[in-house]
Every structure is written in structure tokens, then in C-alpha cells.
Amino acid sequence: MNQYIQLLKSEPTLRRLSAIQLIAYFGAWFSNVAIYTLLLHMQVSPEVVAFTAMLHFLSGIIQAPFSGSIIDSMKPKKLMLILIAVEIFATLFLVFVNELSDLWLLYTLVFLKMAAASFYFTTEMSLLPKLLGGEKLQKANELHSIIWSLSYTLGMAISGFVVFWLGVKVAFILDAMMFVVAFFLLYKLRIEVEFIKSKESLKEMMRDSFRYFKRNPHAVHLMLMHSFVGLTAFDALVALMVDKYYASIIATSLALGLLHASRAVGLVIGPVILGNWINNKRLVNVFIFQAFAIWLWAYLMKDFYMSLFASVIVGFFTTTLWSYTYTLLQKNIEKKYYGRIVAYNDMLFLTSATITSFMIGFLATKGFSLEFITLLIGFGFVVGAIYFKWVLSTQNIKEVG
């Protein structure tokens, strides 16, 4: 952990961006628990739960083809401020969702909120390689994922109690207020990076991106590798688990919060332990470990307390998979294309997460057990391990360090 502390001490811009990230992500999970609690209280069908989970990712897919070009042609701070402002209003207006007839409003606001969040994330991840390089970039990516996980842990756990004691509307308002704090912290930050506004049109920039992919197929393979992490989009699965197995023994909001928080404990400690051990060849093993962890979760699913334990193990490998595959992509592409390629990378990741969310709801509706669905997700990581081993043998992939 000292290496992350030293990095923050030596990089003031990264330190402020990390503080903003911590506040914004922490707030986001208040509304996440509140949204699913609201849906379960309205007794919606599994399809509605899955569709809402899909919307969390679908917005990022739709905007990705042009968001990267915008990032490469607009100053990052200005763009990030606009996106946080959108998140503030989209979150605050969730208080007007009260009954089934308001689902259209819920869908619209979730779509806008997550579109802005995805756009902000892509902007920040394309900014980091301009601020840092080499091992510092890898550690910054790991730190980013640790902060996300820490926010996820605290946000899910605390928001479960907030929703239980104070209700979903208070959670939405608290979420919006945290985004306000993040907005003012970013407003006062000076981001000093070289910015050269492209003279190409957005259409030409998009064409140039595809020409780059054709010349550098390894970039496509690395994006596909990162997209496997989208299989861990468990929001719909957890909501259905709570409804089916745990609602009779614990309040819905508490069960949701504790399950997500336990997985996030693993997300936090994973990169701290595995960060200095991981390399290209060992990444194959991490994919396999992730598969076995998910299979363990499927086996223990019916027992709430054992499921909490298994959730920690599932989270342990996920953050390392996410941060290392992301850093590999950043390390193996040209600086000129950071914004565009990061955007397309996020599009593939979000597509994977969207399909996962949809299939969870679809298979559950068709009568497949939640345990069987979880086993299928674990098998996806076995496929990922085989695929990455092939990529290493056929492509010239640089090591991160």
C-alpha cells in the first residue's frame, strides 16, 4: 500500500483526481442500492430488473463511437465538469420515481446518469497516460480500481443502512450532493497536459481509428481481453438472489448492500496482494482463478453468510484482471489514439456487461436456476484464459513494467 501512497504524494494532480473519484463513486452507490430496492419493492419482473441493469451499461455503448473523438478534440477539464453536472441533475430527479407508471422516467434518468458516468470515466482513463507513464501508470490504474472498489464497498454497505432507515429518496439526494462536492473540487483543479485540438472532423477521426485497428490488430485483441471482465456485471444476479433466497431472512436493502460490499472487499485487497506478482503470462492463471471463484459462489449461493464469503473470493481476482488488461492496452497503443481507443475499449467492455445482464434476466425468466447461470459466467473466464494464451503466442504484446 505504501507504493500507492508515495505515488499520490508525488503526483498532486492524480491526488486530486483520486479524491474526486472517491467522492463521486461513493455517492453513485447510494443511488444504485436505492434503485434496485425501489424496483424490488414495486415487485417488478426479472426482465425489468435485468433491463435496468442493462441500462447502466447500454448508454456507454451507444456513445462510444463518437465519445473518443470528442475526448481527443476537447479540453479534459471542461468536458469532465459538464459530465459531472449531468450526473447531478440525473441523480436528483430520481426522487420523482414513485410507482410502476414512472418506470419510463427511471429508465431515462439511469440512461443519462450512466452515459455521463461512462463518458467521464473514459475521459479520465485517456487522461492518465498523458500524466503518467511506465510503472506509475500501472499503479495509477490499480489505484483507480482500488478507489472504485473502496467506494463500492463503503457506498454499498452504508447505503444499504441509509435506504433501510431513511428511504430511497434520501439516498438519491445524498448521491446528488456528493456529485456537487466533486464538481467544485474538479473546478478548482489545474490540469496541465499538452492539448492539441485535432483539425480532423469527428467522422474522419472515427475512420482513422478503424485504419489504426487494421494496422495494429493487437489493439483489438487487447480490447476483447478487457471485455471479459464485463462478465462480472452481477447487479441483476445479486438482486435476483436477494429476492429468491434472502428476502425472508434480511431486509432487501441490507442484503443488497452487504452482498455488494463483501465482493468489494475482495476488489480492494486483490490488487494490493497481486499487483507486484502479475505479468502477462500469469494473467492466464488469474482468469482461471476467477472462474473457480465464481463456481464456488454458485455452490454456496443458497446460504446467505457463505455467499458473503464467496463474494469476497470472487472480487479478489476481478480488480487485477480489470486494471492489468486496461494497462496493457494503454501500454500497447499510440498516444494520439488514447481517447478514441479507450472509448472503443469501454464500448466492448460495456457490451459484455450489457449482454451479461440481459442473459441473467432472460435465463432466469426461462426457468434456469441462478446457480446454473453463475456457472456459465465462470466458464466464460476459462474461455478468456484460452484466448489470452493464444494472443500472447501470436501477437507482440509488451509487458506493463
TrEMBL record:
Its main location: membrane. The keyword Ligase does not apply. GO terms for cellular component: plasma membrane. Pfam families: MFS_1. It is found in: Cell membrane. It is a multi-pass membrane protein. Keywords: Cell membrane, Membrane, Transmembrane, Transmembrane helix, Transport. One of its GO terms (molecular function) is transmembrane transporter activity. The chain crosses the membrane at residues 20-42, 48-67, 79-97, 103-122, 143-164, 170-189, 219-239, 245-270, 282-300, 306-329, 341-364, 370-388. It comes from the Bacteria. This is MFS transporter. It comes from Sulfurimonas xiamenensis.
